[in-house]
Amino acid sequence: MSNPMRPVRSILLAIFTGCAGLIGYALYLQLVENLLPCPLCVVQRMAYWLIGLTALAGFFHTPETTGRRIYAGLMAVFAFTGGLVALRQAWLVRYPEAFECGISPEEAFLNALPLARWWPVMFEANGDCADVTWKFASLTLPDWSAIFFMILAALSIYVLLVRENQRE
After folding, report:
1. How far apart are CA 9 and CA 162, in angstroms?
2. Which residues lie across from 135 on neighbouring strands?
3. pTM for the predicted model, two decimal places
4. 3-state DSSP helix/strand/coil percent for the chain, to nearest 5?
């Protein structure tokens, strides 16, 4: 008899690993490539952290149906929120004239949070949201982030809707 939670646990572990990899790459871009995170980047980092930690909690907890749905629902909300922020940043990259220069209220707010003081390398916003310094396959960093958030949202919805009696 196979464990019906095994596919779900594998997906949760994959979600956690993916989020950890994305956060690691963001730190690489910041610390090695000197690409400073903007306020919207920091919010996306927070969303990746929340998704990843929720997936990790679900992986270790291995809850029944209701608990699994709560974890998956939270991950989906975090993924959709992060995706909206990434799409907003992608819009700002394409229409930089809509962006005001100087310290934004978002930057001041984020930098005043305890997270920014506790771990400034990860959560302090110092960059310009409309600055395009990185592209891959003609897509900017916010474009790729939006794609990854969509993938994470889809996986979260799958975990939310999968039936327990499904076989491997």
Report:
1. 12
2. 140
3. 0.81
4. 70, 0, 25
Domains of the chain: 6-161 (1.20.1550.10)
Cα 100 from Cα 111, distance rounded (Å): 18
Instruction: Put residue 16 in one of left, alpha, beta given phi > 0 → left and psi -120 to 50 → alpha.
Output: alpha
Query: pLDDT (tens digit, 9 = 90+) per residue, 93-151?
Result: 887 776 665 556 666 666 666 666 766 666 666 766 666 776 677 888 889 999 999 99
**8 A C-beta contact, residue 18 and residue 155:** no
Query: Computed from CA positions of residues 90, 84, 108, 110, in that sequence, does the dihedral angle turn out positive or negative?
Result: negative
Residue 115, Cβ density class (10 Å: 0-12 exposed, 13-18 middle, ≥19 buried): middle
The total number of residues shown for the chain amounts to: 168
Q: Which amino acid is at 17?
A: T
* The pair of three-digit structure tokens given for residue 94, joined into one six-digit string: 């394409």
Cα angle 62-54-48, degrees, rounded to a multiple of 5: 145
> Is the distance from CB of 47 to CB of 156 less than 8 angstroms?
no
The H-or-E segment that residue 93 falls in is helix 65-94
